[in-house]
């Protein structure tokens, strides 16, 4: 939430109060953005395993880049995770969320909404975009024809009142990945998103925007 200043909620049992200096160090430090959909970490000294969702930021203790500290606990990356390895493509990072359940306000593989998905995929790629679809639509340049949509373009959809209510990530070749019930891949044309399962259109296309060239 620090990156986009968006309000959210968290279970009070998961809150740990830190010293002001610890917070300042985190803000100023060079941080690693966790790639999709999660990484495993192990806490010391109790050897407990945890999952850190994609899009989270980690401030490592030293140049080895395999451990970090929160309060008085130290955590280590588990397995073969290499923070120096280049992140995957938009398609790779988006596809990692496939079948994650829809959760309004969610932003992880535990549950995610449409704009949370697009924001996370861009964040993992090193690009910060706003949280809501109605904010994301203000970015980028208009793609005139749906046939010109490329991997990474964002497609926006509106309701009968003309309000932007949905967003998805174009994969190219007429495919779009979006969170609707679950994270899924459907077909996109000039009318909107066509759901092969129901043989009907689920969302009406408003505009496609290109955030980066």
Q: What's the SSE pattern?
A: HEEEEEEHEEHHEEEEEEE
Portion of residues in helices? 10-25%
Highest CATH level, the class of the largest domain: Alpha Beta
Provide the CATH superfamily of the largest domain.
endopeptidase domain like (from Nostoc punctiforme)
Question: What's the number of helices?
Answer: 4
How is this structure best described in words?
A hairpin with a 1-residue loop joins β12 and β13. The chain contains four helices and 15 strands. It is α+β, with helices and mostly antiparallel strands and 213 residues long. It folds into two domains: 17-77, SH3 type barrels (Roll), CATH 2.30.30; 90-210, endopeptidase fold (from Nostoc punctiforme) (Alpha-Beta Complex).
SSE blueprint:
Layout: H1 20-28, E1 32-33, E2 38-44, E3 49-53, E4 57-58, E5 67-70, E6 73-77, H2 90-95, E7 107-108, E8 111-112, H3 114-124, H4 133-136, E9 141-142, E10 154-158, E11 164-172, E12 175-180, E13 182-188, E14 192-195, E15 200-210
Antiparallel strand pairs: 1-4, 2-3, 2-6, 5-6, 7-8, 9-15, 10-11, 10-15, 11-12, 12-13, 13-14, 14-15
Describe this structure in a few short sentences:
The chain is an alpha+beta fold and 213 residues long.
């Amino acid at each position: 939430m620090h990156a986009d200043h968006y309000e959210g909620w968290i279970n009070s049992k998961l809150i740990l109060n830190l010293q002001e200096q610890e917070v300042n160090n985190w803000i100023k430090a060079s941080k690693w953005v966790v790639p999709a959909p999660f990484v495993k970490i192990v806490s010391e000294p109790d050897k407990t395993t945890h999952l850190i969702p994609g899009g989270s930021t980690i401030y490592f203790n030293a140049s080895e880049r395999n451990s970090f500290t929160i309060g008085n606990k130290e955590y280590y990356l588990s397995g073969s995770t290499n923070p120096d390895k280049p992140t995957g493509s938009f398609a790779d990072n988006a596809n990692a969320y496939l079948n994650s359940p829809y959760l309004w306000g969610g932003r992880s593989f535990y549950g995610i909404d449409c704009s949370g998905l697009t924001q996370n995929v861009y964040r993992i790629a090193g690009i910060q975009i706003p949280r809501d679809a109605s904010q994301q639509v203000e970015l980028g340049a208009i793609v005139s024809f749906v046939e010109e949509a490329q991997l990474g373009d964002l497609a926006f959809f509106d309701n009968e009142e003309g309000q932007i209510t949905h967003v998805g990530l174009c994969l190219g070749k007429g495919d779009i990945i979006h969170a609707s019930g679950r994270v899924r891949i459907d077909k996109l044309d000039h009318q909107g998103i066509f759901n092969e399962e129901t043989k009907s259109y689920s969302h009406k296309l408003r505009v496609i925007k290109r955030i980066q060239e």
